[in-house]
Design brief:
Elements (H helix, E strand, L loop, with lengths): L2 H5 L10 H4 L1 H4 L4 E5 L15 H10 L1 E2 L1 E3 L5 E3 L2 E6 L5 E6 L13 H14 L1 H7 L2 E6 L4 E6 L6 H6 L6 E2 L2 H4 L16 E3 L9 E6 L23 E5 L4 H10 L4 E2 L7 H5 L4 E4 L6 E7 L9 H10 L2 H9 L6 E2 L24 H11 L5 E7 L6 H14 L2 E7 L1 H7 L13 E7 L27 H11 L4 H17 L4 E6 L3 E4 L2 E2 L13 E2 L1
Parallel strand pairs: 1-12, 1-13, 17-18
Antiparallel strand pairs: 2-9, 3-4, 5-6, 6-8, 7-8, 10-11, 11-12, 13-21, 14-21, 15-19, 15-20, 16-20, 22-23
Helix pairs in contact: 5-6, 11-13, 12-14, 16-17
C-alpha cells in the first residue's frame, strides 16, 4: 500500500461554492460531527493503547487527576488528597455527586478496582503496584493507598494523559485486563450510545446531563469538562479525499488528521481553520516481536535498526513539507526533556553496514510478517517502507495488509507467524507520553508483562526504577540517558521520526484545546 493509495481520488476534490459552505450553518447547533484518525474497533482503553480508543475513553470516562498544559497534575474526580509524613499513606477524597452513566454513584471501590485493572496493563502503574501494600475505602467518598515505600511520582502517574487511569464501575473493572469489558460505562461528560455504534461507519456520544464539571478553565486533561454539544457523531472516513470534501462542504465540523498532501488545498478554504493542537508532536515507530524468530535474536534486530533511514519514512507518511517533520534517532524525542542528540552510531542509516550485520547475525531466512493498516495514512506508509527495506536486506518478507482494527487485534498474539502471529507492526504516539522513563513502554523491559513486542531487559527495568527514585534531577537525567541508550542498543523499539499534525475544523467551531488528544469539552459553535 503506497502513499498514492491514500491520495486516490484527491484529484476530484473541488473547493466548495457559497451554497456548499453554507451547509455547516444549517446543521443543528447541538450536534458536532467529527472525523477521527481511524476506525474505532476496540472500545476498552485499558485493554489497548490504540490512540483512537484512548480518545474515545476521554469522552466516556473521567480520571482522578489530569495533567494541565504545563504538565502539572491537577485534581479531576478527586477533591483532594492527604499524604502521611513518611510518604507511605495516601488518602484521596472524591468530589461530591459523581455518578456513572448507569445511574450508580461513583464510590472508592470503583476507583480502587479500576486502578488494579489498569496496573495489569500499564507499565507506569506496574511500578506503583510493586510498592502497594493495600488499598481500601475509608468512607463513601474516600480511599487509602498504603505503600511499602514512598512513591515520589504518584500524582504524575495518576494524572498521565495517554493511557490514563480511566475510572469505571467496579463490576466492570473486575474484568481481567487481558479481556475487553463488555459494556462502555463511565462517569465522563459524554456517554457512549451502543445502539448507534456501527464499526467502520459511525460512533455516537450523547451529553451526560448528570456530569458535574469542575469550575476551573479547561487545560488539556484538567479543569472543567463542559459538554456544550448534546450529541457528537464520529464519522469514519478512511479515504482522505472523502474526508476533505466533507469538511469543505460543511458535512463534518472537524477532521482530526488531514493528510499532509491535502493541507495546501485546505489552506485555500476560508471556512476551514488548520491548527497544530499537539505542539509536542508525535513519534513514529517500528516495533518487532522479541518473542519469536527472527527478532528474538538481538543481532537481527540491530541489523534492521542500522538500515533505517528516517527521512524515507517521514516523506512516505508525512510528505515533503519538512516544516512538519524531523528526524529523531533517539528514543527520547526531539523537544522532550531527555533528548541528548542523534545516536548516529546506532542508527547509521547504512544499507551496507546492515547487510554485513545481518550476515553475521545467523539469520537463516525466517519469515518476517509485517502487519499493516490500509486505512491509516499516518501509519500505513511506514509499513511499505519497512517491507521494501527488508527485501533489500535479503529478508523473507510477508506483507499482511488489513484495517487498523485487525492490526491492533492481531498484535496481541504471541504465537509464531505460522499460527497467526506477527513480526513487525508500526504505530505513532505522543512524544510527551514517551518522554518519561517510567511511562514510555518503548524503553521499558517488562517482557511478558510489557507492551506488544515484549522487550525483556532486567537492566532497563532497573534503570527505570533508578530514575523513579533518584534523589535529584541530575541523577534522573543520568538514569534516563543510560536507559534511552540501552533500549536503542538492544533495539527495544526503532524510532522513525517525529512529526506534527495540523488538525482542520470549520471556523465556526470555537474552544479548541491544545494537547495530545482531540478533547470534546469546551467546544461550541459560534
Amino acid at each position: 500500500m503506497k502513499r498514492r493509495t491514500f491520495l486516490k481520488g484527491a484529484t476530484a476534490l473541488t473547493l466548495a461554492g457559497p451554497a456548499m459552505t453554507g451547509r455547516a450553518s444549517a446543521q443543528a447547533a447541538t450536534t458536532l460531527k467529527f472525523a477521527p484518525q481511524a476506525n474505532l474497533t476496540a472500545l476498552d482503553p485499558i485493554w489497548t493503547t490504540a490512540t483512537v480508543t484512548n480518545n474515545h475513553g476521554y469522552y466516556v470516562y473521567d480520571t482522578l487527576y489530569g495533567h494541565d498544559l504545563d504538565m502539572k497534575p491537577q485534581p479531576q474526580m478527586a477533591e483532594g488528597h492527604e499524604i502521611s509524613a513518611d510518604g507511605k499513606v495516601w488518602k484521596i477524597k472524591l468530589r461530591e455527586g459523581l455518578v456513572f452513566h448507569d445511574g450508580t454513584p461513583v464510590k472508592p471501590a470503583d476507583c480502587i478496582q479500576s486502578l488494579k485493572r489498569w496496573a495489569q496493563r500499564d507499565s507506569y502503574a506496574q511500578l506503583l503496584a510493586k510498592v502497594v501494600e493495600s488499598m481500601a475505602p475509608l468512607d463513601e467518598r474516600s480511599f487509602e493507598i498504603k505503600l511499602t515505600r514512598p512513591f515520589p511520582m504518584m500524582l504524575d502517574l495518576l494524572a498521565k494523559a495517554d493511557s490514563p487511569l480511566f475510572v469505571m464501575p467496579e463490576r466492570l473493572a473486575l474484568t481481567d485486563a487481558n479481556k475487553q469489558v463488555t459494556e462502555v460505562v463511565g462517569s465522563g461528560p459524554y456517554r457512549f450510545v451502543p445502539g448507534e455504534f456501527v464499526s467502520g461507519s459511525k460512533v455516537v456520544y450523547e451529553k451526560f446531563e448528570a456530569y458535574k464539571s469542575r469550575s476551573e478553565p479547561p487545560s488539556r486533561g484538567a479543569g472543567g469538562k463542559v459538554a456544550n454539544f448534546k450529541r457528537i457523531e464520529w464519522q469514519i472516513l478512511p479515504d482522505p479525499a472523502t474526508a476533505a470534501n466533507a469538511l469543505i462542504k460543511g458535512e463534518i465540523d472537524w477532521w482530526e488528521r488531514p493528510l499532509s498532501d491535502l493541507q495546501p488545498m485546505l489552506a485555500k478554504v476560508p471556512e476551514v481553520v488548520r491548527e497544530v493542537t499537539d505542539e509536542a508532536g508525535r513519534g513514529a515507530i517500528m516495533r518487532m516481536n522479541h518473542l519469536q524468530p527472527p527478532f528474538n535474536n538481538p543481532k537481527v534486530r540491530a541489523a534492521v535498526r542500522m538500515a533505517v533511514n528516517q527521512e524515507d519514512y517521514m516523506r512516505a507518511a508525512q510528505g515533503d513539507d519538512t516544516s512538519l517533520w524531523q528526524t529523531s534517532r533517539n528514543l527520547w524525542w526531539r523537544g522532550t526533556p531527555y533528548y541528548d542528540g542523534e545516536h548516529e552510531d546506532l542508527m547509521p542509516q547504512s544499507l551496507e553496514k546492515a547487510k554485513a550485520a545481518l550476515k553475521e547475525s545467523g539469520y537463516n531466512g525466517e519469515k518476517v510478517v509485517i502487519i499493516n493498516p490500509t486505512d491509516f495514512p499516518d501509519i500505513g506508509p511506514l509499513g511499505d517502507v519497512t517491507a521494501e527495506l527488508l527485501k533489500q536486506l535479503g529478508m523473507n518478507v510477508e506483507f499482511v495488509a488489513s484495517d487498523w482494527g485487525t492490526v491492533i487485534q492481531r498484535r496481541n498474539s504471541r504465537e509464531p507467524v505460522e499460527k497467526g502471529g506477527w513480526s513487525i507492526f508500526h504505530t505513532t504516539g505522543s512524544t510527551m507520553a514517551w518522554a518519561s522513563p517510567a511511562q514510555s513502554f518503548l524503553v521499558r523491559g517488562q517482557g511478558a508483562k510489557g507492551w506488544f513486542g515484549w522487550y525483556d531487559s532486567a537492566k532497563a527495568e532497573a534503570l527505570a526504577e533508578e530514575w523513579l527514585y533518584a534523589p535529584d534531577e541530575a541523577a534522573q537525567k543520568k538514569a534516563a540517558a543510560q536507559l534511552g541508550r540501552l533500549a536503542l542498543e538492544e533495539t527495544a523499539t526503532v524510532p522513525l521520526g517525529r512529526f506534527v499534525i495540523k488538525t482542520a475544523y470549520r471556523k465556526n467551531l470555537t474552544g479548541m484545546l491544545k494537547g495530545s488528544a482531540p478533547y470534546p469539552w469546551g467546544l461550541k459553535r459560534a
